[in-house]
Predict the 3D structure of the following.
Amino acid sequence: MSKYTIPLSKTISWDASAHGNALITGARGSGKTFFCFALMIGLATLPNNSSNLIGSGTLPTQFFIIDLKNADMGRLQHVLPKGRVATTKKAAVEVIDRFVDIMKKRADSIKNNAPFGSTARSLGMPMYYLIIDEFSATSAVFNETITKDDKSMKYRWFSALRQLSLEGRQQGTFMIIASQQASVTNSGLPSDIHEQFGLIAHLGPANKESYRLTFGNEIKIPREHIDVGEGLMWLEGQTDRGFLLPFCTPKFNPKTLQERVWLALDNQLDGRYLTMTTGNGD
C-alpha cells in the first residue's frame, strides 16, 4: 500500500497519487459535501495508519477551494491560508490560475533537481488538490459571456481545467469536482476532462439514466438499494471490467464534523510543501 492510500469504505481504498482526479455526483442532499470532507480529512493527514480516517499528517495534502455558492466549502476560507478559497467568479479564476502556477513550479523543481523520470509520487512529495463544489452551477457562471472580460475569464477557466486534468498527475496536482450533473451537456464538464477521472462516485438513489450520464453507457449497474450517504463507484484499476462498486461513505456526527475538518487542515502552509520530498511514495 502506498503512502497516498486512504480508505473510502471498510472494503475500498483509493491510491490518490495513482488515480488522483475525482468526480463526485448526486442530487442535492445525497451526501456529496460530506463525502468531500471525508476525502479531505484522509488526504490532509496522509499517510494513513491502519484503517483510520485520520493518518499521521506527515505528508499533508494542500487544498484550494472554489465554491461560488459560498456554502460549506466556502467556510474553509477561515481555515486555509489567504487566497486559497474562492467564492466569486473573479476569485475563482485567480485561484485556478495560482493552482496551475503551482503545478508548473513543481514541474520545474522536479526537472531541475531530481533524477530523470522522477515524479511527485516517486519523490514522496505532498499532493495538491483543487476542489470545485457544484461544478454545473460554476460552469454556467463562466458560460455567461456578456463582456470582453467575461470571455477572457471563460477562456482562462476552461484552459486551466484542461491543463490540470492532462498535466497534473506527474506533479501530484489533482482536482476533486462535485456536481449534481455529470454529463457534458448538463454540467458543462468537457469530455476530455471527464476521461481523466480515476475515481467517479454517484451518491444517493438515482435511476439508470442518471447513472449512465455519470459512468457511461457501457457500465454495469448492480441491483442495490441506495440511500443517502451510500452510492456506486467506479475506481480505476478496480472496476475496469465494468461492474460498479456499492459503497457507504464514512459516518460523521454533524456536530463534530467541523472540528474534525479544522483539525485535519492544521498543516496547510504556503510554500513549505511545494518542493518538500519524503522519499519513495510507495
Q: What stands out?
A: The chain has a mean pLDDT of 88.
